[in-house]
Amino acid sequence: MSTVESNRIVQSSDGAPFLSPKDLADAIGVSESSLKRWVDDGRLIAVRTAGGHRRIPLHEAVRFVRAQRFTLAHPEILGLPTSDARSISPGAQEPFLEQLLAENAIGARAYLVQRYLSGVGFAALCDGPIHAALEHVGELWKHDEKGIAVEHRATDIAIQSLGYLRSLLPPAPEDAWTAVGYAPSGDPYLLPSLACAAVLAEAGWRDKNLGPDTPLAAVREVIQASRPKLVWCASSLEQPGEIAAREAVELANELAPTGTYVVLGGRGAPALGLVGRDNVLIVGSMVELAAFARGLAGSRVAAPKPAASVEPAG
Ligand code: B12
């Protein structure tokens, strides 16, 4: 059965959040009648409740706001975080870095959401503020004890922010291609592989991230079960180590006859011994990964999932 939260966001039986036209209109600062007209002329996709009321999936509302370049007057109506202006110093050069150093997880998330709603995609956010902030964090203490704690906290807050952004995406289309990815044996880095997963999800792929320090046997198992079209490997150690390199070569050899692409990235990618292979691509950024993935999958734009059922407006 459906539930209603604070009389605004309604959940379908599968937990997907929905909004009424009035709430989205209030959030954007337009009239409800304009909103209903956009639904009726198909610019904004809505479902109907059993009682005939229009309901807009949250991810569709987010897509619409980005596509139409609306500024949200009231993001809180959509359940989105609001920027706490007091927590960002005036003229801050790198607001995301500032939020990380202040351990302000809500502020960090609000900043990324704001940039995302203004039209910046996941890949550009990862290559831009996320990469830059962590690079800066890495320069601050050069891994003394305090530095390690700060790096771990900064990584954790960045992961929370990315996870939140991901929750604003529509589910992968039924016919989406699968991508599987990992960081190789001995590589402890969480964020790069997670960022690849998020970027591919935004590009309409079904992503399966195995995370850091993943042995080939585990990667192989998931590949056999899910037959991916693309396998990414995020190799962040400048010297990835013998095992990581041997396993990467084995994997590329196994995948060569299957038509599955291997996309390598990170500072250790060139040292994995796969330069010049036909089925292997070495890329330097998330923007390149996104471009490659979109090109491969054509223009498969994720359609909003139809609602199983939503509660009629009271
Ligand atoms: C967080 C961090 C850690 C954390 C990791 C926490 C975790 N579990 O994830 C911890 C504390 C564990 C750590 C440990 C170490 N670290 Co460290 N770490 C960092 C830091 C600050 C951030 C890395 C990060 O997550 N960045 C965010 C991601 C999103 O960005 P990115 O890695 O730059 O990747 C971008 C691109 O390369 C590309 N990309 C990356 N992978 C992929 C994959 C694909 C498929 C694609 C398409 C693109 C792509 O897209 C990303 C976004 O633009 C960096 C600083 C820096 N300059 O990178 C240092 C840094 C990488 N670490 C460094 C070092 C030296 C170490 C240690 C060796 C320290 C030590 N003496 O113990 C150890 C190594 C651990 C090991 N097991 O060997 C050095 C590396 C120097 C070098 N040239 O090799 C750096 C650069 C810090 C510095 N300035 O000196 N580290």
SSE layout and pairings?
Layout: E1 3-5, E2 9-11, E3 17-19, H1 21-28, H2 32-40, E4 47-48, E5 54-57, H3 58-67, H4 95-101, H5 105-117, H6 122-141, H7 145-166, E6 178-182, H8 191-202, E7 206-209, H9 216-226, E8 230-234, H10 242-255, E9 261-265, E10 280-282, H11 286-297
Parallel strand pairs: 6-7, 6-8, 8-9, 9-10
Antiparallel strand pairs: 1-2, 2-3, 3-5, 4-5
Helix pairs in contact: 1-2, 4-5, 4-6, 5-7, 6-7, 6-11, 7-8, 8-11
Give structural notes.
The protein is α/β, with parallel strands linked by helices. It has helices at 21-28, 32-40, 58-67, 95-101, 105-117, 122-141, 145-166, 191-202, 216-226, 242-255, 286-297; strands at residues 3-5, 9-11, 17-19, 47-48, 54-57, 178-182, 206-209, 230-234, 261-265, 280-282. α4 crosses α6 and α6 runs antiparallel to α11. The two termini are 15 Å apart. 41% of the residues are buried. The structure holds cobalamin (B12). Residues 126-127, 130-131, 134-135, 137-139, 142-143, 148, 151-152, 155, 188-192, 195-196, 232, 234, 236-238, 263-267, 283, 285-286, 289 line the site of cobalamin.
Features:
single chain; about 325 residues; alpha/beta; Multidrug-efflux Transporter Regulator, Chain: A, Domain 2; Methyltransferase, Methionine Synthase (B12-binding Domains), Chain A, domain 1; Rossmann fold; 3 domains; 5-stranded parallel sheet; about 45% helix; globular; disordered N terminus; disordered C terminus; binds cobalamin
The hetero molecules present are:
cobalamin
Gyration radius, rounded = 21 Å
Through-space gap between termini = 15 Å
**Which range best describes the helical content: under 10%, 10-25%, 25-40%, 40-55%, 55-70% or over 70%?**
40-55%
Number of strands: 10
Strand order of the largest sheet: 1-2-3-5-4
Outline the biggest β-sheet: 5 strands, antiparallel
Beta-strand proportion: 5-15%
* Mean pLDDT across all amino acids: 88
- The helix-strand sequence is EEEHHEEHHHHHEHEHEHEEH
> What is the third-level CATH name, the topology of the largest domain?
Rossmann fold
CATH architectural label of the largest domain: 3-Layer(aba) Sandwich
Structural class: alpha/beta
Oligomeric state: single chain
Shape: globular
